[in-house]
Design goal:
The protein is of the alpha+beta class. The chain is built from five helices and 16 strands. The chain folds into two domains: 145 residues, OB fold (Dihydrolipoamide Acetyltransferase, E2P) (Beta Barrel); 92 residues, Nucleic acid-binding proteins (OB fold (Dihydrolipoamide Acetyltransferase, E2P)), CATH 2.40.50.140.
């Protein structure tokens, strides 16, 4: 994939190296031959069951696809600004060589198959546009997560007090709150989308003033976490929001 190579060479801050994949953990993470763990940038696959949590639909299919592409093979790891997550996993785009000798993105393959959702988490957002294209392909074709009813977007009214983890949530922005550090978009009395001010200034400028979102119907994707005032989703990039008519 020549375009991918040109991208990371031109990106300046991004660099790359090669490694062998020992095993695939799930649809968005893997372990290298030297035991380092890699979390793929820009995708979130359905969760495998662990720590007592049930397995999500299509989780095994996502893991199987990723394993078929990279397990036991040499891959290229392409980095962006942030190299590790809070679990000390390496954050990287994973490129593999297909049967025709072309270099391809594992993330794009997962998204185009409908076996993952695109996620945009600053500062590693350099590939957002191309990953959105791959996701749109699956959505338009009705593949995977886009037609699995158990993974469908939840109306905000259906979120329970114990709802956590990655979700697609639909609702209407009812109220805007703000602090020195963030904007708080209230979708319901107990569900709030939090956008840090620094992320708003850097990525959301084309949306205008934050108060212009009040009254708009949105679909937001992200990780739902409990808070003393209800549930929160932290969003740092507009690619995590879709405005609905």
């Amino acid at each position: 994939m020549v375009g991918a190579l040109l991208f990371w060479v031109a990106a300046g801050a991004a660099t790359a190296d090669s490694a062998v994949v020992r095993r695939v953990v799930d649809g968005d993470s893997l372990v290298l031959a030297d035991e380092r763990e890699v979390r793929l940038i820009g995708v979130n696959a359905p969760e495998m069951g662990r720590d007592g949590a049930p397995e999500q639909p299509l989780a095994r299919a996502a893991r199987t696809l990723l394993a078929s592409l990279v397990e036991g093979r040499k891959v290229k790891l392409v980095y962006e600004t942030e190299r590790h997550d809070r679990y000390r996993r390496i954050l990287a785009h994973v490129l593999f060589t297909d049967a025709d000798g072309a270099e391809r993105s594992a993330e794009e393959a997962l998204l185009a198959s409908g076996l993952a959702w695109m996620v945009a988490i600053p500062p590693n957002v350099g590939w957002v546009s191309r990953l959105q294209v791959a996701e749109s392909e699956a959505r338009s074709a009705g593949r995977g997560v886009w037609v699995e009813p158990r993974l469908a977007a939840l109306p905000v009214e259906r979120l329970g007090p114990t709802t956590t983890g990655f979700q697609l949530v639909t609702g209407t922005v009812e109220r805007l709150g703000q602090s020195r550090y963030a904007y708080y978009f209230e979708l319901a009395p107990r569900v709030t989308v939090v956008v840090p001010r620094e992320d708003w200034a850097r990525y959301f400028a084309n949306l205008g003033n934050p108060d212009q979102l009040v009254g708009k119907a949105v679909q937001v994707r992200g990780w739902v976490t409990p808070h003393e005032r209800g549930l929160r989703l932290r969003v740092g990039h507009p690619a995590m929001l879709t405005f609905r008519d």
